[in-house]
Design a protein that fits this description.
Length: 331
């Protein structure tokens, strides 16, 4: 029988099912694979949206913090306000978001990869330790966050370098993201794109690990004390803010070192190694005023950004699941 005849025969067979007879269902492995693929897609979309919303909300504060981090000027809340106000008067309101396009190009894939990787690492570690579908024990909980942050940072680091350069330079120097890559490659060499990579990874490990650990732990404690498995939105925001405050404080000196090394080519400094950069900063500015410069601003910016990020991710996940369930039931 030819292929057309075979196709017709199959269609006739499907159209003439005996009473009570049903078509074969997908196997359990196929169904599990489909669910897993949908879960990954949901995590990627929710993470991307969460990162974009959070970073846009705090972009002016983030830009101000970076400018102080890479300079030897003394930081204070008053000086930060003056810088923001002078920038507004000189270049206009939207200049406060200069570099945010580069931030979005980095943050959207970074947040998508980080949140998605965290969900997958939780699933893998849960299977390994026998906690599938449950909250992980403390050590695997910390490990899942650290590995998720490291994965995202390794993949998106060049975009972080571009963001830092655009934040601390006048708009005449770099016209767009591609221009930054071209000028750095031509004038400083391709290896410059990964300058500051080591302190970034060393900072991400405790930051991401502690942030995710704190958020997951607070949700667990909340469920045990209230009997509600799902916190309210404002509770998620508060849990995320606590996670951001603790996580960023733990790794802040490495964040300062990373920014100095990233922007060395445009600030006139020659930072080569992590230890050398730290020594130079401490010798010139002191430990607290140098390595912790801008931390007080980070205590405002960080909790807001991380709180918004965690809350938005969770709520986006819930909405996507409900939407998919509605579509499935409507069929």
């Amino acid at each position: 029988m030819d292929q057309v005849g075979m196709g017709n025969a199959v269609q006739e067979r499907q159209g003439a099912l005996a009473p009570g007879e049903v078509l074969p269902r997908p196997t359990s492995s196929q169904s599990e694979g489909f669910k897993q693929g949908r879960s990954v897609l949901n995590s990627l979309l929710s993470g991307a949206f969460a990162g974009a919303v959070a970073k846009t909300a705090v972009a002016p504060l983030d830009r101000t913090k970076i400018i102080f981090q890479v300079s030897s000027n003394r930081f204070s809340a008053k000086e930060a306000y003056r810088l923001i106000y002078r920038t507004y008067l000189k270049d206009g309101f939207f200049s406060l978001w200069r570099g945010n396009s580069a931030t979005m190009v980095r943050v959207i894939p970074y947040a998508a990869i980080q949140f998605c990787a965290h969900e997958q690492y939780k699933r893998i570690l849960g299977q390994h330790y026998g906690f599938q579908g449950k909250v992980l024990p403390p050590v695997p909980r910390l490990l899942a966050g650290s590995m998720a942050g490291t994965t995202a940072a390794m993949i998106t680091y060049p975009l972080d370098m571009v963001r830092a350069r655009m934040a601390v330079t006048p708009k005449e120097m770099y016209s767009n993201i591609m221009h930054v890559f071209v000028r750095i490659s031509r004038e400083e060499g391709l290896k410059t794109i990964y300058r500051g990579f080591t302190p970034t990874i060393l900072g991400v490990v405790p930051y991401a690990g502690i942030s995710f650990f704190t958020y997951e732990t607070l949700k667990k404690v909340h469920a045990e004390h209230t009997g509600r498995s799902q916190p309210y939105s404002y509770e998620r925001l508060a849990f995320g803010a606590c996670a951001g405050l603790i996580g960023q404080s733990s790794s802040y000196p490495l964040d300062v070192v990373r920014r100095r090394m990233q922007t060395a080519g445009v600030t006139g400094h020659t930072y080569g190694t992590i230890s050398g950069t730290m020594r130079d900063i401490v010798a010139e500015e002191g430990v607290i005023r140098g390595l912790y410069k801008g931390l007080s601003m980070n205590w405002v910016k960080g909790p807001i950004a991380v709180g918004i990020s965690f809350m938005t991710f969770d709520l986006s996940q819930i909405l996507l699941r409900k939407f998919q369930q509605f579509n499935y039931s409507a069929r």
